[in-house]
Amino acid sequence: MILPIYLYGQPVLRKPTEDLEQGSLDVKQLVADMHETLTAAEGCGLAAPQIGKSIRLFVVDGSELGEEYPDCVDFKQAFINPEIIDESDETATYSEGCLSLPGISENVVRPRTITIRYQDTDFNWHEETFTDFKARIVQHEYDHLEAHVFTDRISPIRRQFVKSKLTNIAKGKTVSKYKYKH
Ligand code: NI
């Protein structure tokens, strides 16, 4: 089922998330719905707050990125109760966008490599290290669980520049081809 994507201005995007307990909901169905929503919106990551749920869960899908980032093609999975436990001093700069902030893309500087601990949909724990664009997707989605959006991390000058765009999104003056809620 395709779910509406909550846009900038929705309070849930600024609310701290809670751990997802095994058995508290049908996590496999929710993850399937989030993947379906993500595919329909042609995005590469979606976090639970973006569909109105304040829980520690996000999904990634790099299959749309094949030409530009071939190593991301098979990067399709869910991260439950994740915790970034290490990050590199070395940084990288990428232009980011977000399904909750349609029409905005800005350069963001973040650690190039991160190590994350998380549970899969069977609630088994994993620890993995990601670098470059995979690390970028993971950090962007992880930020959503910490009540951040990517424009929090851009320079003050650029933030001033996108301020009116953000206000318009919050007021519902936006057009997206996917289903959304403002
Ligand atoms: Ni986002």
What does this structure look like?
This protein has helices spanning 27-41, 132-145, 156-170, and strands spanning 5-6, 45-47, 57-61, 76-87, 91-96, 106-111, 113-119, 125-131, 180-181. The protein is an alpha+beta fold. It has a single domain (5-181), classed as Peptide deformylase (Peptide Deformylase, Alpha-Beta Complex). The strands form three sheets. The chain has a five-stranded antiparallel sheet, with helices on both faces. A two-stranded parallel ribbon has the order 1-9. A two-stranded antiparallel ribbon has the order 5-6. The mean pLDDT is 96. The structure holds nickel (II) ion. Nickel (II) ion binds at residues 98, 100, 140, 144. Residues 98, 100, 140, 144 line the site of nickel (II) ion (NI).
